[in-house]
């Protein structure tokens, strides 16, 4: 009897030992697999993931265009009452519509889909201002169209334009303001009139920015651009005042003048803007498509009649100037070293592919066309600005990723 009891105790001890070993093995295996084996499931969200499958940091500016006629465009041209006749291509006769259906897809992450309500909530009791030239104005029109599509009551929004450099869009429900301020060279120039600025000679006061900056310095979000109006070999530069006759005028190489203008801008920002309170953005250069031979088209042709994308990855045309891009990067690096954070939104490469996105002849013509122009549509095609809905909507989606979704480069 005693032997039998001892045998039973031995069996029970062995059983418990084996069970303990098995449990320990299961736990060890589960821990090991959770760390090294089965991939973790990454939750999807309406935003930007910080890294892709390769583990690299997310770069919103490297990617490809994907045709998407189910979720794009983000608004309809005819339904945006703030649309500009310079950009309303369908209104002025453009029949092909594919330019409206392209979505930008970064290689290593997703670009968040624009949500007008979320942006307005972020802009509640705040002011956002676009400062620059007609390309920045086009981006502003895009943003206003995107935001206004989320406002169901038209009485709760309005636009104010009295012919000055400043145009205001206001959402009354959110007390949110989205402005555009015309300053094509950022510093003071003889092209500062918002309507009468096409002059035979361009003159800049390279050290003077207060005339413009006092209108936008106190904003919560500032989006700057300046490129198109600098595109000439030399620019006449003024040290002095337009009102006085004792100023010093000198023709200076464009790249050097551009650099001096951005130095003036950066000095103003450092003294007058608190980047901890104000978000600062600089839009990189918007490329042009004025020489079809650059992408394999016919000589002496341009974007007229183009309805497809350039599919060569990394394509760069001569409508973009890398030297000017480096000047902007140097300015941003200098600001960062002095404690100022300004984010460049690099729209250049992604826009290079879009030779199909310009108004071409499909816009309001401000002057009567001559007979020889009518016979040669390429001669008056606009291959600089962009149709809306279109490419600038993606520029604003990139801004949205930083403003609302909290993306960091």
Automatic annotation (TrEMBL):
Any GO CC annotation of this UniProt entry: Golgi apparatus
Membrane-topology annotation of the record: Single-pass membrane protein
Compartment(s): Membrane
Keyword field: Membrane, Signal-anchor, Transmembrane, Transmembrane helix
Transmembrane segments: 12-33
All residue ranges annotated as the Trichome birefringence-like C-terminal domain in the record: 111-401
Keyword Membrane assigned: yes
Pfam families on file: PC-Esterase, PMR5N
GO-annotated molecular function: O-acetyltransferase activity
Domain Trichome birefringence-like N-terminal: 57-110
Transmembrane is among the record's keywords: yes
InterPro entries from the UniProt entry: TBL, TBL_C, TBL_N
Family stated for the protein in its record: Belongs to the PC-esterase family. TBL subfamily.
Protein name: Trichome birefringence-like N-terminal domain-containing protein
Organism whose genome encodes this protein: Thlaspi arvense (Field penny-cress)
């Amino acid at each position: 009897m005693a032997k039998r009891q001892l045998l039973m105790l031995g069996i029970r001890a062995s059983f418990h030992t084996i069970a303990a070993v098995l449990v320990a093995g299961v736990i060890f295996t589960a821990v090991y697999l959770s760390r090294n084996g089965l991939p973790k499931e990454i939750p999807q969200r309406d935003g930007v993931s910080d890294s892709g499958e390769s583990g690299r940091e997310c770069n919103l500016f490297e990617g490809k265009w994907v045709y998407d006629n189910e979720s794009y465009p983000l608004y309809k041209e005819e339904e945006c009452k703030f649309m500009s006749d310079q950009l309303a291509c369908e209104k002025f006769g453009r029949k092909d519509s594919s330019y409206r259906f392209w979505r930008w897809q970064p290689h290593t992450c997703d670009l968040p889909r624009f949500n007008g309500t979320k942006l307005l909530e972020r802009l509640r009791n705040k002011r956002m201002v676009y400062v620059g030239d007609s390309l920045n104005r086009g981006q502003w029109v895009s943003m206003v169209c995107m935001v206004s599509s989320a406002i169901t009551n038209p009485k709760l929004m309005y636009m104010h334009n009295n012919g000055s450099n400043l145009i205001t869009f206001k959402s009354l429900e959110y007390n949110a303001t989205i402005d555009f301020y015309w300053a094509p060279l950022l510093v003071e120039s003889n092209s500062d009139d918002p309507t009468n600025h096409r002059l035979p000679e361009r003159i800049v006061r390279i050290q003077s920015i207060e005339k413009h900056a006092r209108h936008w310095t106190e904003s919560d979000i500032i989006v700057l651009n300046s490129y198109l109006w600098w595109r000439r070999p030399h620019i006449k530069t003024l040290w002095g005042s337009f009102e006085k006759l004792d100023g010093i005028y000198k023709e200076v190489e464009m790249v050097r003048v551009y650099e001096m203008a951005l130095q003036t801008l950066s000095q103003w920002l450092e003294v007058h803007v608190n980047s901890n309170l104000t978000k600062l953005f600089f839009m990189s250069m918007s490329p042009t498509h004025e020489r079809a031979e650059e992408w394999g088209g016919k000589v002496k042709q341009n974007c007229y009649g183009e309805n497809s994308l350039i599919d060569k990855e990394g394509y760069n045309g001569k409508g973009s100037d890398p030297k000017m891009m480096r000047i902007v990067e140097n300015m941003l690096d200098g600001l960062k070293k002095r404690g100022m954070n300004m984010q460049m939104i690099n729209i250049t490469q992604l826009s290079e592919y879009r030779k199909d996105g310009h108004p071409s002849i499909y816009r309001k013509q401000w002057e009567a066309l001559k007979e020889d122009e009518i016979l040669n549509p390429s001669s008056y095609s606009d291959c600089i600005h962009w149709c809306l809905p279109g490419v600038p909507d993606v520029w604003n989606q990139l801004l949205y990723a930083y403003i609302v979704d909290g993306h960091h480069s």
